[in-house]
Amino acid sequence: MNDKYLPPDPPSYGFTSAPPGSSQNYPPQGYPQHGYPPQGYPPQTSYPQPGYPPQNYVPPPQNFGAPPPQNYGSPPPQNFGPPPPQNYGPPPTQPLPSSPIVVQPTGWYNRNQKNKPQSNAAGAAALIFLSGGMNIAWSIGFHNFYVQYLPVHTRVAWFIGAIIGGVFSCFLANKLPKKVVLCFCSLLVMIGGIVIASTRYNIKAIEASLYLDGIANGLAFAPTMALAGEVSVFYMRGAITASIEQMCYTLGFFIQIIYVSSWSTSYNYNSFNAEQMHGVLAGIYGLIGLVIAGILCIESPVITLANGEEQKALDLLRRLQRPYTITTETYAQLEEHKRYLAQNKDLSTSQSIVQALPAFVRLCYLRALNAMSFSTFVFYALIVSFTSSYYLSSLTWRFIAFGAARWLGTFISSFCMESAGRKGPTLFGLVVCGGLSFGIAKLIGDVYSIHYADGDTILALLCVFQLFAGIASTATSAYLSEAYPLGVKQHFIASTFIVEMLVFIIISSVKYSIQGHAIFFYFLGALYLIGFFLGIFCLPETRRTTLRESQDKFKGMISMGF
User: Fold this and answer.
1) DSSP string covering 347-389, please?
2) Is the pLDDT of residue 61 over 50?
3) Domain 121-299+347-553 maps to which CATH number in 3.40.830.10, 3.30.230.10, 3.20.20.150, 1.20.1250.20?
4) DSSP 3-state of 92
């Protein structure tokens, strides 16, 4: 047969220098063909090929000296394809940066949706604090007419109960799971609501309900603030802590004012009264809080990690963000918690106390101003503003405007916490409240000196005062969750809360007079202005910082940054 009809030889594979016809003796290089094992890849059979290490082979450690002689058997055949991949085990772990690598979602809605489990973890406390805000309003004077002249013990019963709960929370710090504490406190709130809802015109039953609710709030306060700070990512901590604590207290305060001021008073003994409505709402809050605590409460990954349960802490971090998957961000947060624990582990108890004292002094000052801003004398100023009102029907909107102003200030600053920061809004609220307090004091003093009260002006100043008092106090929630060292955190949070309750008790126990009323607002204005000037030099800005970095900023008394 003529050779010109035969097909030409296939082109050689590999390098162009390969001699023609070499493909008849060797399998083609590059890509696997039928009948030949692929070259340049680990062999597919269970036996190692000559010149290749077996599968799962771990090479000896490398050094910078001369390479050790390798003896794998017969010399490997010449290979013109890619080198075989070698399995050296997992790559070495690279050290993480000092701050967690967190990709912040754009937009408030996306951030809230991603981190919703963090606010749900302490969501039961929001219902407890809602009931507490109602009882604070009741204790300072927003209650039905038939209990206007209450004994001092009844007026301060809730605050005494809150102190008792705060003392117990110091002894139970990190000894009980947060879920157990929140479930128990929700149960106390529900029982207290049932007690007051099932009785009529019974002061003893009201006192018992106040004590139960106060103990629940005091017992839940410190664990909740610690938990909210530890489960939150650093760019959501301020908003979550403020919305759970300050915003819920002021919302309960506002709700109490709404239904008390608008309730149609009836002299019929068997009619459903405002105090029973108070009990019904408290019972509902307690029941919902009990359900939320049992289903949605998530323990602190920091405390879990401190107990040596790293895998459980990692699972908790996974459940605290949506979607519920472990990502590099989850590992970064775990490493940051480890650094936070390591920083606090080096501190002895005495060192932790010494480091916490400067923050304790600053926060006690701010929380005392918070208590004074909606205390009994502020309620009396609201009553004085009604002296120019000739129609009782006009009182309802005055009450509602007063309560709405306080809640609105807290609401606005809660959602601006991570954009406007903590220090700036706090200082702005302090200086405005200081000036308004002097104005209110001057108008109230006119009642004593010239027996005339400009009620509309007093009401307007009180509403603006409440608006900026809410702005000035909101950041204290975030400060409480991040200021104190871990070893004494719950103890100092509870102690700060107890100081605030003592201020309520002192003011509620003082005998009222018009002259003393004006002096109170002069004194309050001076304290606000002193807080403003000292805050410039002493208050730190902890916006978008980790717990470890925030704790460092509270060391000492001087902090000039904004």
Assistant:
1) --HHHHHHHHHHHHHHHHHHHHHHHHHTSHHHHHHHHHGGGG-
2) no
3) 1.20.1250.20
4) coil
- Cβ atoms 322, 114 nearer than 8 A: yes
Q: Using CA atoms, how far apart are residues 116 and 340, in angstroms rounded to an integer?
A: 23
Q: Are 217 and 132 in contact (CB under 8 A)?
A: yes
Pairwise CA distance, residues 259 & 201, whole Å: 18
* Residue 109: C-alpha distances to residues 103, 116, 156, 296, 407 (Å): 15, 10, 41, 20, 22
User: What are the CA-CA distances from residue 43 to residues 38, 78, 276 (Å)?
Assistant: 7, 15, 82
pLDDT bin (cut points 50, 70, 90) of residue 96 is very low
What pLDDT shows up at residue 108?
Answer: 78
Helix (H, G, I), strand (E, B) or coil at 99: coil
Q: What angle do CA 367, 551, 427 make, to 5 degrees?
A: 40
Q: Would you state the structure tokens that stand for residue 109, as one six-digit string?
A: 């809605």
- pLDDT tens digit string along 253-297? 999 999 888 876 555 666 788 889 999 999 999 999 999 999 999
Q: For residues 485 and 473, give the distance between their C-alpha atoms in angstroms, rounded to a whole number.
A: 22
Closest among 291, 275, 163 to 221, alpha carbons compared: 163
Task: Tell whether the model's pLDDT for residue 234 goes beyond 80.
Answer: yes
Residue 7 has pLDDT above 60, yes or no: no
Domain residue ranges in the chain: 121-299+347-553
102-105 long-range contacts (CB < 8 A, ≥24 apart) are 102/233, 102/234, 102/235, 102/329, 102/332, 102/333, 103/329, 104/235
Distance CA 388, CA 516 (A): 21
In one-letter notation, the amino acid at residue 148 is Q
pLDDT 10s digits, 173-201: 889 999 999 999 999 999 999 999 998 88
Q: What is the pTM of this model?
A: 0.81
φ and ψ of 197, to 5 deg: -75, -25
Q: What is the pLDDT of residue 103?
A: 60
